[in-house]
Amino acid sequence: MGIGGAEGLHKQLREPLSARGDLEALRGLEQGTLRLGSFPTASASLLAEGLKIVHQRWPAIEIQVRSALRPQLIDMLHTSEVELALMWSYSLTEATEQSLSLVPVATDRTVLRVAADSPLGKVVSLPALRDLRWIIRHGQHPASEVLSRSCESAGFAPHVVYGASDYQELHAMVAAGVGIAMVPGLATSHHRPDVRILSFSPADRIPARSITIASLTRRRYTPAMYAMSQAIHDAARTIVPDR
What we know:
Number of strands: 12
Order of helices and strands: EHHEHEHEEEEEHEHEEEH
Number of helices: 7
């Protein structure tokens, strides 16, 4: 995984904030409320760490969080149920509307999860995995689509033996030796000693997902919005090591 866009965020936000004197307000920010949308793997990693940072720096800011799927997050932005939302997208994901402004936070690379006693090396080639069993997220989950398309490009269809409802269940099945799993890196933020994380060969060109902070293009950043955005970028530098 790699970080991108932190400087871009500061550059994009500093000019309008400075013009209104809001940077000065941020330095002395004592109160404020922010409604924030997020999705589970980001909430359990980037957002959790970002909230710690906000509470340490600006303890009086109230952050109200809504966790939802991507289409619901987009709807909540448009209906002003939330002012900001952590979002994800792959190259194969349908583009968001121009009414949304997306600030890059991180590139969440796709990794392989295997049982701790797997003989596979630290870097694997997807074609070499054609005869192994796979565990996926069921219900047309985006990570499953990435697996399907990647394997198709490699010339085979994955032998799926288990469809998990969430990543906790998926990792438990991997640990039990039921199969291997292709997952986003942020889904591995809580390490299990009985599961290993492997990298795919760059030659496989496995799609990574982009993590962004979304807001309505017409919405002006408040000091509380800027504070949360800054905290999420700082959290990404801690959580995503190889930026």
